[in-house]
């Protein structure tokens, strides 16, 4: 039995190995670039999450409150709003609302920014005028709220967790 030997040497040439290495490095660099771009896009989306998700919901809720309100007052504290003292036109973190019920009686509610726990809360006042606990939280991502009245229009300036600011304007129904 004869063993047939090829005249061609076994294995890969230096050129083939070099090309494979270069292609592998190119694929890896493209993959790292895509990962870096994805991470940057994710961070940007996280920074804008308040403006994209929470702010429109707050706008919708506040629009409903103002549409239902027959009167409102601004106060610098929850205690002032509960006692209906010291109203202001600017620099308020508390909005007191009065609305008429179908039977002609008036119901009162308060929107207050509690900076101690970072919560924008809604209070429904009982007939005796007391409400120490919020009925529910509108948002826990707001870091500051400034209610003010300019030319008869209520403005609400919200500051988000990344210091993004947005201003909403509204008025009572006519």
Radius of gyration: 31 Å
Structural class label: alpha+beta
Report strand order across the widest sheet.
1-2-3-4-5
The unreliable regions are: none
Mean pLDDT: 85
Order of helices and strands: HHEHEEEEEEE
Structural commentary:
The protein is an alpha+beta fold and 174 residues long. It has helices at 14-47, 49-68, 78-83, and strands at 71-75, 94-100, 106-114, 119-124, 136-139, 144-150, 153-159, 165-170. The strands form two sheets. Strands 1-2-3-4-5 form a five-stranded antiparallel β-sheet. A three-stranded antiparallel β-sheet has the order 6-7-8, covered by helices on one side.
Summarize the structure in short.
By secondary structure, the protein is α+β, with helices and mostly antiparallel strands. The chain contains three helices and eight strands; from the N terminus they run H-H-E-H-E-E-E-E-E-E-E. The strands form two sheets. A five-stranded antiparallel sheet has the order 1-2-3-4-5.
What are the key terms here?
single chain; 174 residues; five-stranded antiparallel β-sheet; 3 helices; three-stranded antiparallel β-sheet; alpha+beta; 2 domains; 8 strands; 34% helix; rod-shaped
SSE blueprint and pairings:
Elements: H1 14-47, H2 49-68, E1 71-75, H3 78-83, E2 94-100, E3 106-114, E4 119-124, E5 136-139, E6 144-150, E7 153-159, E8 165-170
Antiparallel strand pairs: 1-2, 2-3, 3-4, 4-5, 6-7, 7-8
């Amino acid at each position: 039995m004869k063993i047939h030997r090829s005249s061609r040497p076994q294995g890969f040439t230096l050129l083939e190995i070099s090309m494979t290495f270069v292609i592998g490095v190119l694929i890896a660099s493209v993959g790292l670039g895509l990962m870096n771009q994805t991470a940057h896009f994710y961070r940007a989306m996280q920074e804008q999450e308040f403006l994209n998700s929470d702010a429109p919901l707050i706008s919708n809720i506040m629009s409903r409150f103002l549409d239902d309100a027959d009167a409102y007052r601004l106060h610098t504290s929850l205690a002032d709003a509960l006692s209906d003292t010291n109203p202001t036109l600017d620099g308020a973190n508390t909005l007191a609302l009065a609305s008429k019920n179908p039977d002609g009686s008036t119901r009162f509610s308060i929107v207050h920014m509690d900076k101690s726990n970072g919560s924008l809360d809604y209070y429904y006042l009982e007939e005796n005028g007391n409400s120490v606990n919020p009925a529910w939280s509108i948002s826990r991502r707001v870091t500051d709220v400034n209610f003010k009245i300019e030319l008869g229009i209520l403005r609400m300036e919200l500051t988000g967790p990344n210091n993004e600011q947005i201003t909403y304007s509204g008025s009572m129904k006519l």
